[in-house]
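The pair is quoted verbatim underneath.

:::
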Amino acid sequence: MNLQLAPLAGISDAVYRLICFENSADRATTEMISAQGYLSAPKNSAAYRFLTDKFATEGELYAQVFGKDASLMADAAKALEDMGKFQGISINMGCPAHKVSGGGSGVALMKNPSLAAKIMRSVRKSVKLPISVKIRLGWDSNIAPIFAKMLESEGADEVVIHGRTRVQQFSGKADWYAMAEVKQSLSIPVIANGDIFSPEDYFKLMEICPFDGVMIGRGALGRPWIFSQIKALAKGEIYDTPNVKEIVSLAMRHANMLSEWKGEDRAVLEMRKHFSWYIKGIRGAAELRRKLNTLPSLAQVEELLYSFAHNTQKEEVYG
């Protein structure tokens, strides 16, 4: 079983990755690293240090790089490889965000297959580590099987396919059948990504096509235990769902680790979105979220969360 945490900008940092590894994720990928930005940034830049930090107890980790200049992409990938902390390189050719694709990177490369091929070829020549490429179905139509075949021919070791086009962003449903066409077209591993929000979703997907693994992004937000739940169900076991007190305890551990790493002020701000995801679906979450977003210290956050947990019954937990 190959369960991966997706790269999520502003989310999948070292702390959250570690929590997912502790909940049985097999692999993770860093947040997106700009090839141009990384190569031009001062070596002691806090922004890029946080992007490339890896805790000793993390599992298998790929460094994800994006850009549109083949030479810069190759140099950045080589620099990341030389750090000696990553087990692979991920090339982003699937990000739909305007600030990325609008500049010709990310999924915009699927509109320019010749440039995408040049980038793939250049990075392949530059590094010895395995290379995974993350793509979508296409910009506005499904070209993924042909595009992925090109990546394979240029030396990709793995393709991660998200079942939507750029035009769709995250609307509608991921097309698992279209993703299966990519799997059927390649001889290298194909990892499925999109709309895996429960352990049951994983098995529904695998009934359609025996992908070589899955990459979970939004489905793991506030639910890092989804990885261990999938593995429990695969063994025929009834998987556990944490109660409110356990969720709060995990959320505060997340917050405290983030505070130790990035400082309390930054942790308080960054954790607001994570707290929102952790408590989603619990009765009273909307009001709790409103209060959490006004608190300036983790001590106050902790007091509020544990008070909330104490007053919330176990049957009010989400799945």
Q: What stands out?
A: Strands lie at 3-5, 27-29, 33-34, 60-66, 88-93, 131-135, 158-162, 190-193, 213-216.
